[in-house]
Write a structure and sequence with these properties.
The chain is an alpha+beta fold and 256 residues long. 47% of the residues lie in helices and 18% in strands. Helix 1 crosses helix 5. A hairpin with a 2-residue loop joins strand 2 and strand 3. The protein is built from nine helices and five strands. The protein has two domains: 112 residues, no CATH class; 93 residues, Lambda Exonuclease, Chain A (Alpha-Beta Complex). Strands 1-2-3-4-5 form a five-stranded mixed beta sheet, sandwiched between helices.
């Protein structure tokens, strides 16, 4: 059994190590005996072995109609993605932004060679098919690179007074108990900011119109965040939506 060094604490490798340790060990054993290494890649293979299904086989879930396929295409944010894949991309992007806000951008940038493996393993754990991972990784890379290069994005992620990411709250709103998760909140110059990340884009629309439409769409959700925070904080509150794929920002204030 090869002697493996334990990954550095809080590194990308530490996060994915439990899922790849066995594979790395097997590869080392194979390398020692055959002096060859097989490299795994997400790129389409040059040739495939095909098995024919029986003529009587039918999809046990449902048949995808042309209408279904067209609907998925219309909803895809720049790539041919199913609705679940868009959700998985958003989930993982949020997780990475939370880590960066806690440990700084060096957490993501110091081991670039491991970024693809990190994204692949986490997307698989979320339930994404291997065939969809290539485009999903491109979108996540674009989102993270944009926010780290954008002045507004850096401001959101940097250290602030009372800063918290993925803040889970339970609040009584309109006589109903609501479970809420705020992507990012902090205080700067006496103002409490409540920020929500949106991993969507509008490449073919007027940006200002798109941002106003998004504000209207998520006004109710942001109102709930506002009401929950207001129970704990009497300082002025401002709301903001940040779109990493576009490096775009929309902010507003609720008038009481």
């Amino acid at each position: 059994m090869p002697n493996l060094i334990k990954p550095q604490t809080k590194s990308l490798l530490e996060k994915i190590w439990p899922s790849i340790q066995q594979e790395v060990t097997c590869n080392l054993l194979q390398t020692a005996s055959t002096e060859t290494i097989e490299i795994q890649t997400d790129s389409p293979p040059t040739h495939r072995l095909t098995k024919r299904l029986p003529l009587t086989w039918r999809n046990p879930t449902k048949e995808v109609t042309l209408v279904d396929a067209y609907a998925r295409h219309q909803k895809s944010p720049g790539f041919y993605l199913s609705q679940n894949n868009a959700k998985h991309i958003g989930t993982l992007t949020h997780q990475i932004l939370e880590q960066i806000s806690r440990f700084g951008k060096a957490w993501w940038q110091k081991e670039p060679a491991l970024q693809d493996s990190y994204l692949r393993q986490h997307l698989l754990m979320l339930g994404m098919l291997s065939i969809d991972i290539f485009h999903a990784r491109k979108m996540i890379h674009q989102s993270i690179n944009n926010i780290l290069q954008d002045e507004r994005g850096q401001w959101i992620l940097q250290q602030h007074e009372e800063a918290q990411s993925e803040l889970a709250l339970t609040a009584l709103i309109d006589q109903e108990i609501k479970s809420l998760v705020i992507d990012r909140t902090f205080v700067e110059k006496g103002i409490r900011w409540i920020i929500d990340y949106k991993t969507t884009s509008a490449p073919d629309e007027n940006i200002e119109k798109f941002l106003k439409t998004e504000q209207d769409e998520y006004a109710e959700q942001m109102q709930k965040y506002y009401m929950a925070i207001r129970e704990m904080d009497n300082r002025p509150i401002r709301l903001g939506l940040y779109f990493p794929l576009m490096s775009a920002w929309q902010e507003w204030q609720i008038t009481e």
